[in-house]
Amino acid sequence: MAREDRIDVPVERAYRDRTIVVLLAELGLRGAECFRDPNDDRRDGLRWDDVDLERGRLEVFGKSREREPVGLTEGAHDALDRLARVQEPPIDDWPLFPTDHAASKYDAVEAATGDRPTPGSDIDSILRDREVAPPSITKEAGRQIMRQLTDEAGIELEGDAEYLQPHGARRALGAELYEQGHSELAQKALRHNSIETTHNAYSDIQAEDVAESIDEIRK
Hints:
Layout: H1 11-27, H2 31-34, E1 51-52, E2 57-61, E3 67-71, H3 74-87, H4 102-113, H5 123-129, H6 139-153, H7 166-179, H8 183-189, H9 204-218
Antiparallel strand pairs: 1-2, 2-3
Helix pairs in contact: 1-3, 1-7, 4-5, 7-8
């Protein structure tokens, strides 16, 4: 719809929003694994060097505070592939979901180069030309995007919930797998076991197998 000008949304932003929804729904990622946490220096949001489309996986900084592999379902792989082609990230450290906050972009250039661009500059072009990665959107910005998408889609929710929250997608994925009798797969997909304590370590191959299993269940 954005490509055909049927909605007044920039194409890159439309693909960004679509990818956020797909990663939350298909992979059960936590908001803190997708977006930047201003109160945690190690949570700087997903970057393209976290994504390996050829192997069908990505890595997140998990609740364990360790890097955790996550296999890509077909839907997640497709969404990331499309986003990469639209976004054309100039460097591997580029965030999947860059901030729209102009001042933060100016700050990023100044921190990297020592020079602050002139106000009113094409800051996005400057970031690309100088290969300076902008900050990722924050967790709060991710929630705001979900709130806006819920409103635009005309989705009415039961109870006190005002919008589709990121963690709700994670719960829904777990519920879907448990209800179909796949409790072990649900446990692996949601990465509930500690990587440090489980003997069945969530290896790179297992991560991809989990995604493949989810795809097969849904066919």
